[in-house]
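Lab notebook, design round three. We kept the backbone fixed and only want residue identities now. Task for the bench partner: fill in a sequence for the structure below.
Input structure tokens:
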């Protein structure tokens, strides 16, 4: 089929498409299916010997080291359970630095001599695996002759059954490390960071007179995504290969809002949502679908918050589930941060808090002065950490695709600041001005004596332009992109919080040792924090140009692009921080930087090649055909002696030569023998390839507005965003 025929056929197919019937009445009640495919605590309690169960629970809840002798018992119970659930295979699931999920499947069944097979699954198979790791990025951590990586069972994230028409698989979440124990994945550092944060948070809680349980961090991620019909998706090589459209002009302004598809959720999408919810429930993922779409075709889901390690695994599983359920419903689910230029992009807001079962959420202001003082200390630690390590937070969300979104007046700016709301900001201002120590004057909050004003938790009060906003009982980090794993940002947040809580505990301990009264010690450390780090608090409009200027005056970094941000990973301060809290060693930090750059270069190179190919083989031919048609028309009219002008033909011809020359430039840029150092290659991608592919797009998008519709080869924005 020629280019335009593909598009026209896609439109016909979409119109004729009958979505699969989702018969909701037949579905099991959510209560019955919830967690049915999870090797959960209650399953373990039923199936494991008491001592084994206790030992495993102790590891899960309190971070106790796993007793190796229990592995065989757990493996055997897990196998029996999985076989009853129809599993034929098991897989160690891990989270390599590509950002995707990887798994290696093995059969449970091993042939025995008599021609039959026996299900085998030993403790050591549960605990450790050895996938062929050579194809995953390692940033120099594995030499080629030593391509081995190991997966190790993460007891704190429960195993589950993944259903598949061709047989079910028992999935075991694992860490992925090199032979020398260096992290090759997203999970390992998150577990380490979580532990570092817990130790320091517990130190602080002890100072408040508690005998604390293990503190954990919680994460609730709000995931935005687009749905497009699969027929359109398959007619767009850019969506298939780059995840975003490299061509396509936005429909005329306003048009998207008067379309009848907007507002009501198409039945088809509702069917998809209910189906995904059901699949997520089976996997024990506490999904809560919402659909406050900002752009047409855009939706959101926010599962209930969980411990961050589990939330990170569930988040990955959610994305996989969405992709496969969308396919079943004849759609493609797009997680790219900016699939459509000029249309609102997608983020993944990371809501986080910390706490434990006894002291509850440590970011919840309490009712008593004592609880409030404790809240102010934990919140103060967040303020310090975000100011001191804003660059690292920015680096934790850096990617070529998120660069399209950050700072685009729909997402927070690249400047990392904190929104506290007026009341809380005022409390900290009073603390900075002396609070309890310097004066007894009325109106100053006295820590541990006065209660806090009631802080609003109303979402309406929130500042949507802030990258890091306090929302009543948690912080919401709004910079992460929709495609990213939450593990990276959560690793950074936990580590920088560990440092800040360490600082707080050490300072209070020193004050107490020199005879300072407890409340004064708290006032003193909070005052220090606010004087040094208070400049990160900003309640104003983050989208305003004035903020760019003011932030610079305050000395807050403005790391606009990935290339500006990722070097933060290897700054002396970052290396010292991560080494001190044993989250990354220096080699691991360098490997992360290298992988971030590799991914950046790879994604822009793919886009450049695709742009060249689509420009040459789809857009240019359509434009030339139309040009020919117009030229023939002009010729025919002239021959017939009819007066005519060439005002339709000329702009087409002009744009065609712009397109041709932009394509030539892009082709040359791709061929050029440029830098070989990875940093220089990154710059080349950003400063040469990206502008070159944008130039092609500019000419092509202008042509889209002029070329006859029946000749245009690519499904348009209008079609993709509005026809579901
Ligand atoms: P909103 O729509 O106002 O942003 P939601 O209550 O829907 O608020 O919350 C958004 C996300 O924040 C959800 O994933 C939710 O589970 C999560 N969340 C709520 N409370 C906390 C908390 N204490 N810690 C971490 N995440 C939380
Ligand atoms: Mg929110």
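Proposed sequence:
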């Amino acid at each position: 089929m020629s280019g335009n025929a593909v598009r026209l056929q896609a439109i016909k197919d979409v119109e004729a498409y009958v979505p699969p019937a989702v018969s909701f009445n037949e579905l099991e009640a959510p209560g019955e299916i919830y967690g049915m495919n999870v090797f959960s605590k209650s399953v373990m309690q039923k199936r494991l010997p008491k001592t084994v169960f206790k030992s495993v629970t102790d590891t899960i809840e309190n971070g106790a080291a796993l007793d190796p002798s229990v592995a065989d018992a757990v493996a055997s119970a897990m196998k029996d359970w999985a076989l009853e659930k129809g599993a034929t295979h098991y897989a160690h699931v891990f989270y390599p630095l590509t950002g995707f999920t990887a798994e290696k499947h093995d059969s449970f069944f091993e042939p025995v001599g008599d021609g039959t097979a026996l299900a085998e699954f030993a403790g050591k198979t549960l605990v450790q695996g050895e996938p062929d790791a050579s194809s995953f990025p390692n940033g120099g951590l594995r030499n080629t002759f030593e391509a081995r990586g190991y997966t190790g069972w993460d007891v704190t994230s429960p195993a589950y059954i993944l259903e598949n028409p061709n047989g079910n698989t028992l999935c075991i979440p694992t860490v992925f490390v090199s032979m020398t124990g260096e992290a090759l994945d997203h999970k390992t550092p998150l577990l380490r960071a979580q532990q570092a944060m817990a130790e320091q948070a517990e130190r602080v809680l002890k100072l408040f007179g508690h005998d604390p349980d293990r503190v954990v961090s919680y994460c609730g991620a709000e995931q935005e995504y687009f749905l497009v019909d699969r027929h359109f998706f398959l007619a767009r090589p850019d969506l298939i290969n780059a995840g975003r459209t490299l061509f396509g002009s936005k429909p005329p302004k306003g048009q998207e809002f008067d379309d009848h598809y907007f507002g009501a959720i198409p039945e088809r999408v509702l069917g998809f949502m209910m189906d995904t919810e059901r699949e997520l429930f089976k996997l024990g993922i506490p999904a809560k679908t919402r659909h406050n779409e900002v752009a047409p075709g855009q939706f959101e889901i926010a599962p209930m918050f969980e411990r961050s390690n589990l939330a990170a695994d569930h988040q990955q599983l959610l994305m996989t589930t969405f992709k496969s359920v969308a396919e079943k419903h004849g759609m493609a689910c797009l997680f790219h941060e900016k699939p459509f230029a000029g249309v609102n992009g997608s983020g993944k807001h990371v809501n986080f808090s910390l706490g434990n079962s006894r002291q509850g959420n440590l970011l919840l202001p309490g009712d008593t002065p004592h609880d409030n003082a404790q809240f102010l200390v934990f919140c103060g630690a967040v303020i310090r950490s975000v100011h001191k390590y804003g660059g690292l937070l920015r680096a934790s969300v850096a990617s070529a695709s998120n660069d399209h979104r950050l700072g685009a007046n729909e997402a927070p700016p690249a400047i990392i600041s904190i929104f506290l709301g007026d009341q809380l900001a005022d409390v900290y201002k009073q603390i900075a001005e002396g609070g309890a120590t310097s004066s007894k004057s009325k109106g100053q909050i006295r820590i541990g004596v006065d209660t806090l004003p009631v802080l609003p938790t109303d979402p309406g009060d929130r500042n949507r332009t802030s990258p890091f906003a306090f929302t009543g009982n948690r912080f919401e980090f709004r910079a992460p992109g929709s495609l990213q794993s939450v593990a990276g940002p959560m690793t950074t947040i936990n580590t920088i919080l560990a440092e800040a809580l360490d600082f707080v505990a050490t300072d209070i301990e020193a004050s107490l040792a020199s005879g300072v009264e407890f409340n004064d010690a708290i006032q003193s450390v909070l005052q220090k924090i606010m004087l040094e780090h208070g400049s990160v608090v900003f309640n104003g409009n983050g989208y305003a140009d004035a903020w760019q200027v003011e932030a610079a005056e305050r000395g807050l970094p403005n790391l606009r692009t990935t290339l500006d941000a990722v070097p933060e990973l290897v700054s002396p301060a970052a290396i010292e921080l991560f080494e001190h809290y044993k989250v990354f060693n220096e080699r691991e930090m360098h490997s992360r930087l290298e992988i971030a750059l590799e991914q950046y270069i790879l994604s822009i190179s793919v886009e450049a090649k695709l742009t060249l190919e689509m420009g040459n083989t789809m857009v240019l031919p359509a434009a030339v055909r139309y040009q020919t048609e117009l030229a023939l028309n002009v010729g025919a009219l002239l021959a017939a002696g009819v007066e005519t002008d060439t005002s339709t033909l000329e702009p087409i011809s002009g744009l065609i030569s712009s397109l041709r020359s932009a394509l030539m430039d892009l082709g040359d840029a791709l061929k050029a023998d440029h830098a070989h150092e990875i940093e220089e290659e990154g710059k080349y991608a950003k400063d040469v390839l990206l502008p070159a592919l944008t130039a092609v797009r500019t000419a092509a998008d202008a042509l889209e507005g002029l070329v006859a519709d029946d000749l245009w080869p690519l499904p348009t924005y209008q079609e993709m965003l509005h026809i579901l």
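Keep this in mind before ordering anything: Residues 254-262 have pLDDT under 50 and may be disordered.
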